[in-house]
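Fold it.
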Amino acid sequence: MDDSEKQKQKNYVLWLLGRQDYSRKELERKLSQRQVPQAFSCELLDWCEQHGFLDDKRFCAGFVRRAADKRHGPRRIMADAQQKGLAKEQVSEAIDALDIDWFELALEAYTRKFRTTDKQLDYKEKAKRMRYLTARGFDYQQIEFALASEANDE
């Protein structure tokens, strides 16, 4: 790999990071798709970390915050973060740092999706609503809280 090609790949990585934050794993994947040698990509990403352009901790905190703003539950956030190549411990720390009330977030996601409701839900409708909250990443207790709170409001 000659110097001009190295500079081209460096410019590509800086261009990507100028648009948004990425995890190290995502950038490794993008560079491997461009057939950049592994040794050079590691060297380039280390350089980016040294200069503060690439920071997995910062990316993780922003990722968790954006996911919570989308009303995703802790399970979904954890699964999505692992797909992005983030460490489980790092994601857990970021989730704990936000100090989110997951029960209230589940209730908010539920009420935004299901604004009108009958007094008594039949089994099929209740299962549909539970599947929705499960797909959003909430656990059973949080889902039960959201369903019970909604039933108590009426």
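The mean pLDDT is 90.
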